Amino acid sequence: MPAGRPSRAAPRRKTRIELIFRFLFGGRAKKQKRKARAGGKRSAAGSFFYWGGVAGVWAAIILAGLVAYVTLTMPPSTLANIKKRPPNVTLVASDGTVLAERGLRRGYIRLARMPPHLINAVLATEDRRFRSHFGVDPIGLVRAMAKNVQAGAVVEGGSTITQQLAKNVFLTPERTITRKFQEVILALWLEMHLSKDEILELYLNRVYFGAGTYGVEAAAKRYFGKSARNVSLPEAALLAGLLKAPSRYAPTRNPRRAEERASVVLTNMVSAKLLAPRQAMAAISQPATVRSPSGLTGYEYAADWVVEILPGLLSEWKSDVIVEVTIDPALQRKAQELVNATMTDQGPAREAGQAAALVLDTKGAIKALVGGKSYRESQFNRMVKARRQPGSAFKPFVYLAALESGLTPDTLIDDGPVNINGWRPRNYKKGFRGAITMRDALAQSINTVAVRLTMEAGRWRVARTARRLGIESDIHENPSLALGTAEVTLLELVSAYAPFANGGYRAVPHIVNRIRTAKGKTIYQRRTLGRPRAIAPVYVGAMNEMMREVMVSGTGKRAALSDRPSAGKTGTTQNFRDAWFVGYTANYVAGVWVGNDDGTPMKNVTGGSLPAQIWKSIMTEAHRRKRPAPLPGTSMPALAQRAPVAAGQQAKRSFIDRIMGAFTPNS
To answer: What is the mean pLDDT of residues 191-209?
Structure first.
């Protein structure tokens, strides 16, 4: 470097942010920098206000663009749409029988006719500043955000009553940022076009209160058998408490939780100065009594469930719809009647309080479902919502996995003591039998053999087999997996047996075939896609041979049908907390669960007793006009052997020998 020339650092590369600012503002950053050098102390304050103004302008541009986008993608909003009532839902069977109606069919009630304590209960709980905000409540949003951050999850939404009305009238249920912006804009639009009383009246006449009821008038008649204008303070608190989560706080499903929620509503009314403390205490001490529904038809559990799953089939519907379901009306009524009669007659002596039942055809169409002993006593649908341990009713998945890993129905397995890290499974009948064939072990429901087969095949294989056939609940691959300790619903367990009945194909349970408008336009049609194979044909026959033996000489003898082949499996959990029977013919698959909602033990109720008895009664009714037919794969022997073969020797047989064994006649 020449002497006397000042050193100069290498030019600094411009950062990406500087390049963006230079592109947006045409080099003004550099000019501003020069002015700062010349202007001295003015540069700091000037820069602050300058860049603050620039940021404000761009924020306004971005906000305007966002509002424009959200507005352009919004559904049409007119006063005519708002005044329309929510759509009704009519359920019909394939033969045209009307099974049920759901929706706003109980009348519209004016706000002026509603008691003040009902209105105040809703305002105190849902939107305390409804009368003062402009459709959006900034204070409520900040409070909701703080609670959500503190809880680490979304525990409060912050939506006002106006926003909820906008969502119910104009928007679809999905949760997205765009939809939330649309909700806010529509709430502002509603506040500009309607009075506060009109918004509140529309909201109370459209909001969902559970049990298939929309609007406070329908809810009051459903739960209390009276008009909304006559509800008491405790009843009003219960109704207001439902709005947060109709299913969670449903008094028909969980009376204690509903009562606790009503107490929260009354406390909210006191804190909002809408109720005196002594009035709240009096209401809490005398909670509302929910009326049992009258005029039952036997279709109620099915109808409630269809309405519940309807949003998953249709993203939205604005007019009345007719839902064609797979239910067989005569079988449905008879199934409900048989469950009720058996449990009423024999349940008390056996300390068994509840039961559920399900009948599918071999393709998965639901022909009858019973969610409980009596809809009048409890509207909780145990068929689809109760997760219980299936016990030995899970064993068919163990045996199928064992067949697929190379064993056969005549493979000998040791029925002897098992010790897995201190866990020692026992058989229902004390003692051990020594070497026993898989066929006989399944028929007699030997626990030790099921555990050994799981060890032989691998717990991962058993779990994978159960999932492949239709079990969707979590399956923990622990040592007790073989004994049915993973909780499942009756719906998924019965559907997972369907491949045995239909020749090995997966059967997705379904209840809705078609949905059409009142004018006849089809808006949903169930797609009949090809069913994936779940079990190879050779194993279908082997499983049906073994499970048929359950009905002939095993634990399911009481369920055997006298005029046709049938197969199935019993299930009983520890201390008689749950009892199951799941079985099938070539025409139908059915399952029955018996137990108590609180999990208390029954008095020696096994899967081969009450469940088998109910199953036989329902399936006898279902087959009245059906010709007997063989179970798939049983018209010729499947995987039979001339003599029992020990599990240790099974590996010595060649692959060809195993395949040829499928065609070897019984000796």
So the answer is: 93
- Sheet of strand 89-92, all strands in order from the earlier edge strand to the far edge: 98-102, 89-92, 321-325, 512-517, 522-525
> Cα(347)–Cα(334) distance, rounded to whole angstroms?
18
Catalytic residue list contains 271: no
| Cβ–Cβ under 8 Å, residues 25 and 54 | yes
Place 294 in a pLDDT band, splitting at 50, 70 and 90: confident
Residue type, 75: P
Q: Where are the domains of the chain?
A: 16-38+45-72, 103-285, 389-488+636-667
618 contacts 338 by C-beta, under 8 angstroms: yes
Among 123, 151, 127, CA closest to 141: 127
The sign of the torsion formed by the CA atoms of 187, 191, 197, 198 equals: negative
- Measured between alpha carbons, how far is 98 from 302 in angstroms, rounded to an integer? 13
Cα dist from 588 to 379, 549, 634, whole Å: 26, 18, 16
pTM of model > 0.70: yes
pLDDT tens digit sequence for 57-115: 777 777 666 566 555 555 555 555 565 566 788 999 988 899 998 865 557 899 999 99
The pair of three-digit structure tokens given for residue 550, joined into one six-digit string? 């359950």
Domain 389-488+636-667: homologous superfamily in CATH? DD-peptidase/beta-lactamase superfamily (3.40.710.10)
Give the pair of three-digit tokens for residue 622: 């279902």
Of 60-69, 237-246, 286-295, 437-446, give the lowest mean pLDDT range: 60-69
CB-based contact 196:78 (threshold 8 Å): no
* Sign of the four-CA dihedral 310, 316, 318, 324: negative
Q: Which amino acid is at 626?
A: K
* pLDDT of 461 over the 70 cut: yes
Contact predicate 478/438, CB 8 Å: no
- Lowest mean pLDDT of 92-101, 194-203, 221-230, 629-638, name the range: 629-638
Active site residue 472: no
Calpha distance 227→109 (Å, rounded): 9
Contact between 507 and 363 under an 8 Å Cβ cutoff? The reply is yes
Is 366:498 a contact under the CB 8 Å cutoff? no
What is the Cβ-side half-sphere exposure of residue 330, based on CA atoms within 13 angstroms? 7
Backbone φ and ψ for 164, nearest 5 degrees, come out as -65, -40
Count, residues in the chain: 667
Instruction: Pull the structure tokens for residue 253.
Output: 């499903």
Distance CA 177, CA 158 (A): 14
Name the CATH architecture for the domain at 103-285. Orthogonal Bundle (1.10)
Q: What is the pLDDT of residue 48?
A: 73
- Burial category of 540 from C-beta neighbours within 10 Å (exposed 0-12, middle 13-18, buried 19 and up): buried
Amino acid at position 536, single letter: A
What is the rounded distance in angstroms from the CA atom of residue 551 to the CA atom of residue 583? Answer: 9
Q: In angstroms, what is the C-alpha Rg of the chain? A: 33
Among 217, 243, 199, CA closest to 82: 199
Distance between CA atoms of residues 85 and 204, nearest Å: 12
Convert the pLDDT of each residue in 644-658 to its tens digit.
Answer: 445 444 444 333 233
From the candidates 126, 183, 235, 492, give the one annotated as an active-site residue. 126
Which of 378, 392, 495, 617 is labelled catalytic? 392
- Residues with Cβ within 8 Å of residue 99, at least 6 apart in sequence: 91, 92, 93, 297, 299, 302, 303, 325, 327, 329, 332
Integer Cα distance of 547 and 569 in angstroms: 7
Residue 481 buriedness (CB in 10 A; 0-12 / 13-18 / 19+): buried
Tell me what pLDDT residue 285 has.
Answer: 96
- Answer whether 571's CB lies under 8 Å from 391's CB: yes
